Amino acid sequence: MLIRRELPADVPAVRAVTAAAFAKPDTPVPVEVTLLDALRDCDGWLPALSLVATDADGEVIGHVVCTRGHVGAAPTLGLGPLSVRPDHQRRGVGLALMHAVLGAADALGEPFVALLGSPEYYSRYGFRTATDHRIAPPDPAWGRYFQVRTLSAYDPALHGTFEYAEPFTRL
């Protein structure tokens, strides 16, 4: 497996992986696919933080993206979606993608990465409830499911309400 930046030619494969990973019987196109398309066209898109996992044949088997978020005027990151093709799930692809995107974000000097997801799953990557860092979720009902992973450039003085890139507000 290789983790690398997403290339323009990867977009159809990334859409297919995301659609397969989030497929539901009653939804022809999962919301995560629509979100990803909208994120690519917004000011918050960060090409260096859109990563794919490829297999030995060069096929895209997973994808993760971080986009520009904010706490007040301070730039931060929002993670998601994270997608792994169903026939490659539970084989370390998601783990590799998460470690790669967190390492890349840290190398770029970002203060933290925020996400909405399972605390049981994401705690293995160092994510903690955002309110533990005085970061409020965009929706207070998210509670412990809104989490933050601090990075090397994190300053505890940074606090307030997190704002995702604009396409997230349309969900």
Describe the structure.
- This protein is α+β, with helices and mostly antiparallel strands and 171 residues long.
- Helix content is 23%, strand content 29%.
- Strands 1, 2, 3, 4, 5, 6, 7, 8 and 9 form a nine-stranded mixed beta sheet that branches.
- The longest helix has 15 residues, at 93-107.
- It is globular.
The CATH superfamily name is Gcn5-related N-acetyltransferase (GNAT)
| Fraction of residues in helix | 10-25%
Strand proportion: 25-35%
Secondary-structure content class: alpha+beta
Q: Kindly state the number of beta strands.
A: 9
Distance between the termini: 32 Å
Tertiary shape: globular
Tally of structural domains: 1
N-to-C SSE string, H for helix and E for strand: EHHEEEHEHEEEE
Computed CA radius of gyration, to the nearest angstrom: 15 Å
Summed up:
23% of the residues lie in helices and 29% in strands. The protein is built from four helices and nine strands. Strands 1, 2, 3, 4, 5, 6, 7, 8 and 9 form a nine-stranded mixed sheet that branches.
Tell me the layout of helices and strands.
Elements: E1 2-5, H1 11-21, H2 31-40, E2 50-54, E3 60-71, E4 74-84, H3 93-107, E5 112-116, H4 119-122, E6 128-129, E7 135-136, E8 146-150, E9 160-163
Parallel strand pairs: 4-5, 7-9
Antiparallel strand pairs: 1-2, 2-3, 3-4, 3-9, 5-8, 6-8
Helix pairs in contact: 1-2
